[in-house]
Amino acid sequence: MFSFVFRLAAMIALSISVIMAVLDATRTVAASVLVLTPLNTSWLAVSPDTRAAFETFIRTKASPLLWDSAIAWVLNQPGFAVFAVLAFLLYAIGYRRPPRAGQFAAT
Prior knowledge:
Layout: H1 2-31, H2 39-46, H3 48-62, H4 64-75, H5 79-94
């Protein structure tokens, strides 16, 4: 049950990563210069209220040091790369090994 949820979340994260990569590729072709949009910029363009609420939540509940050192660094990375890594991690968590047929092979 849980492996299905993690694999579904991985598929959604990978889909978001591909969409963000296509947007960056389109902007790169249009500008004739490599364009890598940071996750922070994309998040602010889509929903600035949730971005501000997330920052407030982390600064008050966890630590301003956590925001300044770790989360701000992640938000400054290209969005497609962040979601691709997230998709990989979620898939690795939800991965199920195929069942083994048997220990010995009959010849």
